[in-house]
Specification:
By secondary structure, the protein is α/β, with parallel strands linked by helices. It has one domain: Alpha/Beta hydrolase fold, catalytic domain (Rossmann fold, 3-Layer(aba) Sandwich). 31% of the residues lie in helices and 24% in strands. It has nine helices and 13 strands. Strand 2 and strand 3 form a beta hairpin. Helix 1 packs across helix 9 and helix 2 packs across helix 3. The longest helix is centred in the middle third of the chain and has 16 residues. It is globular and about 55 Å long. The chain starts with a strand and ends with a helix. About 2% of the residues have low confidence.
């Protein structure tokens, strides 16, 4: 495992953006494709996905722009039912649907003549979705995870208040009366992410494009999801970028112990928290450097 010392470096300029749309299981998804300005030939590309409940203008767009500044075309998009994308079932954190959306993004990029190859970058919760997609799609050659959140149902029970509390949340999800909670709030104790950094700060993640909603129907697919399972199927090279202070280090450790595919790790200092990986300038740049080097190697 490589450990990096952080330092501030200027962001490269010369990135263009293109609004795109593509179909996924009957709905239209909206995204932004970032490319280095003046690219004269087909480029390697990355599909970039972010933390749970987030939209393309948050950390997916941040990392997509950083990769484009490093010579890699990068697509950030809104999942089904989130942000600008279509979908009658809104604000549901459904790992299976989101994994299918990643595969639809692969279909879309595969049809472009300005793309030569593809890899996947998942940040936080979407690390599991991205790893699952890369494991089964031969068009994706590598997978990188930043601040990975990789839970299985047993881990989720511990995180969300124990077995009985998890059962109660799942039961509420199964009832599915259309209830929608506030995603994050500094004042509402009933929000899903009460007083969480980034999501509750207007100069960080609490931007106008953020839905900031969480359907109660999310609890069953989220709590019963097994992000660890793809470790058994993955044969492509993986990069994990994290720190001792990420939110679920046990998940990253368990995945590493279970997988047999080639793994590289880059760990930043213990002062870098989960939320710092989303937008802290030095942490994002160090992570993007590592991911670009990995995809280009």
């Amino acid at each position: 495992m490589k450990t990096i010392n952080l330092q501030n470096t200027p962001t490269k300029t010369g990135v263009t953006s293109e609004a795109v749309s593509f179909p996924s299981h009957g709905v239209t998804l909206k995204g932004t494709l970032y490319k280095p300005e003046g690219a004269a030939s087909a480029l390697p590309a990355a599909i970039v996905t972010g933390a749970w409940t987030t939209v393309k203008e948050q950390m997916p767009g941040t990392y997509a722009r950083e990769l484009a500044a490093r010579g890699i075309a990068a697509l950030a998009f809104d999942f089904t039912g989130w942000g600008e994308s279509d979908g009658d079932r809104r604000y549901v954190e459904d790992p299976e649907v989101k994994t299918a959306d990643i595969k639809a993004a692969v279909d879309y990029l595969s049809g472009r003549d300005d793309i030569s190859s593809m890899s996947g970058l998942g940040v936080c919760a979407s690390s599991g979705y991205m790893a699952a997609a890369v494991a089964v799609d031969d068009r994706l050659s590598k997978v990188a995870l930043v601040a990975p959140w990789l839970h299985d149902p047993a881990m989720a029970e511990g995180i969300y208040g124990g077995v009985e509390n998890a059962k109660g949340l799942i039961a509420a999800s199964e009832a599915d009366d259309g209830a929608v909670l506030v995603g994050a709030s500094a004042t509402d104790e009933n929000s899903v992410m009460y007083q969480a950094p980034y999501y509750t700060e207007e100069d960080r993640g609490l931007i106008p494009a953020y839905d900031n909603k969480f359907a109660v129907a999310s609890w069953k697919p989220w709590l019963t999801y097994d992000a660890q399972a793809s470790a058994d199927r993955l044969t492509k090279p993986m990069l994990m970028v994290g720190s001792p202070s990420i939110a679920l280090p046990a998940g990253a450790e368990a995945y590493e112990a279970r997988m047999t595919a080639p793994l590289e790790k880059v760990w930043l200092g213990d002062d870098v928290t989960q939320f710092d990986f989303y937008d802290r300038v030095d942490a994002v740049k160090a992570s993007a450097d590592a991911v670009a080097d990995f995809f280009n190697s």
